[in-house]
Amino acid sequence: MANIFDKAKQSTPKKEEKHVIVSIPEIEKDLAKLASIDEKIAELEAERAEVDSVVREAGKEAMIGIYNSKKTFPGTLKIVAGKMSFQFITSDRYLKIDEDRFNELSELYGKNVVEEETTFSFNTAILLKHKDHISDLIMKSKKLSEEDKENLLISETNYSIKKGTIKDLFSIVKKSVDTIIEDIKPIFSIKSVQKV
Fold it and tell me: What are phi and psi of 72, to 5 degrees?
């Protein structure tokens, strides 16, 4: 008697092309050109990312230097570099953080820097399962199992840096804003790159 696994393996059909195949040989050169352009765009995007990183870092260092020297948030900077210039924007928006980072930042800088927001929503499957008894969905209800009661609500907690934090860092730290800026990670952007 043959092994059913071996039999199944032998009878498994080979994968076939699922798409309808159409031949249009006259656009081969256009496709080759498109592939070449896509390749160049990918190379330019990689090069742009490198250059952008250098420019952002220079802008960030300039902003931190001004923030430290004036002890106030400088806002948007216009940076001039020879015959070129750009605006360096420090937004009051921050990279997302998780619970561990929330706890670390809270410990380092206090609860005024971070916030926790929990949203609750009903587990629709359980809610629909018991829709006829919705008025009885009090914890004393005999119609819901303990497991259903526990799973009725779904919660999602998000952690973030509080809005406005970037604007008054010297109320949190005393000597320099360098470390706290690295820790809270505000969003930096560059725009209006142009000749002066």
Answer: -140, 155
Within the chain, what is the greatest distance between any pair of CA atoms? 87
What gap in Å lies between CA 74 and CA 63, rounded to an integer?
Answer: 7
Strands 153-161 and 77-81: unpaired
Name residue 151's amino acid. N
156-166: average pLDDT: 92
Q: For residue 5, is pLDDT > 60?
A: no
Which pTM does this prediction carry?
A: 0.68
Positive or negative: CA dihedral 37, 39, 42, 44: negative
Q: Report the 3 state secondary structure along 115-140.
A: EEEEEEEECHHHHHHCHHHHHHCCCC
Q: Which of 157, 177, 195 is nearest to 66 (CA)?
A: 177
Give me the torsion for CA of 18, 22, 24, 28, rounded to 10°. Answer: 10
In 3D space, the residue among 95, 86, 94 whose CA is nearest the CA of residue 54 turns out to be 86
Q: Of 93, 46, 89, 104, which is closest to residue 193 (Cα–Cα)?
A: 89
